[in-house]
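Ticket #4471: structure export looks truncated?
Reporter: QA, pipeline team
Priority: medium

Steps to reproduce: submit the single chain below to the structure queue and open the exported record.
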Amino acid sequence: MSSTIVWLRDDLRLDDNPALSAAAAGPDRMTVVYILDEVSPGIRPLGGAAKWWLHHSLAALSADLESKGSRLLLRRGAASAELRGLSEETDAGSILWNRRYGLAERTVDAGIKEWAAGQGITATSFQANLLFEPWTVRTGTGGPYKVFTPFWRSCLAGAEPRMPADAPQRLPQPAPAASGSLPVSDSLDSWGLLPRRPDWSTGLAETWTPGERGAGLRLEDFLDGPVEEYGTGRDLPGVEGTSRLSPHLRFGEISPFRVWQALRQRYPRNAPADVGTFRSELGWREFCWHLLYENPGLATDNYRREFDRFAWQTPSDAELTAWHQGRTGYPLVDAGMRQLWQTGWMHNRVRMAAASFLVKNLLADWRLGEAWFWDTLVDADAASNPANWQWVAGSGADASPYFRIFNPVTQSKKFDSRGRYLRRFIPELADLDDKAVHEPWKDSTAADAYPAPLVGLQESRARALDAYQQLKEG
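Actual output as written to the record:
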């Protein structure tokens, strides 16, 4: 008897999982496999925080599959080799997966389809993790969009995203190997995804619940509160004003179609403007993936190639360490960097301020920041992370103009006026009043407890603008 392989990647869920549902609807036994592939050409290994998330997400998925009568098989190595071996072990007649959009991943998938066709194995892929696939949204001349607003307008003018499919009630039994026993699975613990010495993940565990159930609870909490004030709440780091769905979407623990449908059900007509603002943030995620699809080197190459001539400076070890550790002397930047280290996440408004400080006030290459976020963010994905860094740096698509330099003092006074966010992550400033907490160098009581500013804002701003002027003048 032949069997079906369902190959999971960034879609660690049972709900609205087209590849899994297609296999569940068929007559064959089924092997559900996750392959940790860090060796195929061009595949970018996960950062430390993402590895922590992946471990717990796979553990949750394994339990969910077992509750439905299935199991999760774990393998490590080049995906093409592992799938070929597994198809022979289980006499697989078909391999199903949900599509990916990076060039390295697409190359792997295309190679497997070509091999499968030569073996008489059916290989089928599905749309699961983007509402609008890159080749379906094009300009009037047939090219890709380079500016977000017309891109999103085009998306919304098309067909409504499909309805999500519920998780199957039961799943086919696991497929045995030729020996009659089940294929051997790696032990999740043997992959070493969790930090050990030291274990820096305590704050992550206190903040997050990886897995499909955690994703559903996040969505419910968001719809029951912050969504109707999202337009303003998303800018206030001291309140729970965002969805915090980003890591769940990154690992595919919830489908964007399910999020879209939940909004549609909650607001069948006349949705508040804040809901539209949140939908546009889903759209920005889509836009980033479209950019990566068209520009595979997004994490290494300037989207605007004139920035290849930009005079980035190499920060000193002390400067870069101060930024990493949240000791730049500017409370908003430091609170964000400490939040990132403690929780694996940073509020988006603060991300922009922290990134702007690195690439403009310190004049450091944006790739240094992108690499640090890749290693420390639980929601770092191959599209949004580099696209957003390039947006701040001015080198990206639809980018913030380079001369827009976030002033961290102005930003914290505007968006965290009472210093709630600052005090939470910088306890040494807890006793300062609401005015002094934004500029502690002006308060003598903070001098010993908190570092002096790493650079002057006016001087470093002038230096950045001068470098940008030199770029414009060629």
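Status: closed, not a bug. The export was complete when the record was re-opened. Leaving a note from the reviewer for reference: The chain has three domains: 3-128, 130-161+211-294, 305-472.
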